[in-house]
């Protein structure tokens, strides 16, 4: 590393600082469906190919959502597949959305749920965070500050993300106890020690987060986080015991039935210890209540922020 190049601050510190600075633990989720975008978007040229037109409309929608709710949020969670399904133009829409989020001082979490080993895992990590290993020089990734990953294939499927993220000052959120109803099919199964699968995964996440390759001396929070569904609040206290320094990403609030009021143990580490993520309940607030979608989305995000701040 050149003498004048400073290493990036560790993700845990960046996250805690962002939560303090923006006075918010709310993450707006964007999983744009070209058939269900906010009305009133910018006019599109009439000669665009279908994929280009869909991607341009998605990018415009995402920009308007972020402009509306940024004052109440600390980050945006971008559902990778919602952009990937539009092909190359979708990747351009993703890049534009990441750049706009940065302009608004929002962290970007890429919800990709990657899970593979060896070369494939490293390739996925490079796609998310960028690569410096090509013969032609550095290649930019998505620009995300963190990415979600699946632990089913074990520690060696996680370490390429964790290691590369640490070099970039980025984070990795591991699926631990998810918010979907089918989570119980595997994650609640009891192991030989009498504890569920999610408890074993939680210990693994805490151990990896404490390893020298990912831990930052003096940091309050680890760079390795956990996705913990808000729809199973009875698990939160135990998960926090198992992962005392781990940032929690808490999906499932709003449309899936989770309640912020039930998540207080997740916030124990202080600023950045827990992030509330909501998608449909924020972006779709206008459709549910009527009126201007931007104003309705901001009201919904502000209400979540106020509730989380009171915990």
Automatic annotation (TrEMBL):
<dbReference type="GO" id="GO:0044205">
    <property type="term" value="P:'de novo' UMP biosynthetic process"/>
</dbReference>
<keyword id="KW-0210">Decarboxylase</keyword>
<keyword id="KW-0456">Lyase</keyword>
<comment type="similarity">
    <text>Belongs to the OMP decarboxylase family. Type 2 subfamily.</text>
</comment>
<feature type="active site" description="Proton donor">
    <location>
        <position position="113"/>
    </location>
</feature>
<dbReference type="Pfam" id="PF00215">
    <property type="entry name" value="OMPdecase"/>
</dbReference>
<protein>
    <recommendedName>
        <fullName>Orotidine 5'-phosphate decarboxylase</fullName>
        <ecNumber>4.1.1.23</ecNumber>
    </recommendedName>
</protein>
<dbReference type="InterPro" id="IPR011995">
    <property type="entry name" value="OMPdecase_type-2"/>
</dbReference>
<dbReference type="GO" id="GO:0004590">
    <property type="term" value="F:orotidine-5'-phosphate decarboxylase activity"/>
</dbReference>
<dbReference type="GO" id="GO:0006207">
    <property type="term" value="P:'de novo' pyrimidine nucleobase biosynthetic process"/>
</dbReference>
<keyword id="KW-0665">Pyrimidine biosynthesis</keyword>
<comment type="pathway">
    <text>Pyrimidine metabolism; UMP biosynthesis via de novo pathway; UMP from orotate: step 2/2.</text>
</comment>
<feature type="domain" description="Orotidine 5'-phosphate decarboxylase">
    <location>
        <begin position="25"/>
        <end position="300"/>
    </location>
</feature>
<dbReference type="InterPro" id="IPR001754">
    <property type="entry name" value="OMPdeCOase_dom"/>
</dbReference>
<dbReference type="InterPro" id="IPR013785">
    <property type="entry name" value="Aldolase_TIM"/>
</dbReference>
<dbReference type="InterPro" id="IPR011060">
    <property type="entry name" value="RibuloseP-bd_barrel"/>
</dbReference>
């Amino acid at each position: 590393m050149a003498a004048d190049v400073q290493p990036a601050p560790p993700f845990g510190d960046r996250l805690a600082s962002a939560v303090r600075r923006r006075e918010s633990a709310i993450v707006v989720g964007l999983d744009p469906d070209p058939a269900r975008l906010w009305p009133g978007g910018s006019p599109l040229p009439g000669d665009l190919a279908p994929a280009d037109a869909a991607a341009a409309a998605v990018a415009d929608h995402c920009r308007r959502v972020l402009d509306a709710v940024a004052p109440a949020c600390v980050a945006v969670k971008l559902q990778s597949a919602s952009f990937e399904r539009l092909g190359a133009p979708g990747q351009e829409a993703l890049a534009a959305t990441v750049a706009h989020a940065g302009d608004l001082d929002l962290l970007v979490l890429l919800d990709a749920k990657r899970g593979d080993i060896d070369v494939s895992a490293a390739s996925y990590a490079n796609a998310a965070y960028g690569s410096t290993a090509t013969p032609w020089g550095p290649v930019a990734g998505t620009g995300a500050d963190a990415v979600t990953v699946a632990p089913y294939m074990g520690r060696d499927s996680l370490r390429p993300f964790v290691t590369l993220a640490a070099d970039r000052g980025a984070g990795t959120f591991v699926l631990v106890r998810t918010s979907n109803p089918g989570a119980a099919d595997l994650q609640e199964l009891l192991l030989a020690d009498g504890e569920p699968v999610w408890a074993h995964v939680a210990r693994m996440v805490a151990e990896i987060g404490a390893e020298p390759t990912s831990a930052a001396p003096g940091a309050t929070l680890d760079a390795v986080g956990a996705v913990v569904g808000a729809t199973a609040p009875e698990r939160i206290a135990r998960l926090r015991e198992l992962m005392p320094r781990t940032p929690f990403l808490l999906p499932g609030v709003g449309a899936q039935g989770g309640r912020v009021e039930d998540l207080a143990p997740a916030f124990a580490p202080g600023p950045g210890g827990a992030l509330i993520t909501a998608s449909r309940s924020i972006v779709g607030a206008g459709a549910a209540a009527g009126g201007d979608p931007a104003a309705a989305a901001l009201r919904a995000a502000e209400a979540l922020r106020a509730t989380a701040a009171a915990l």
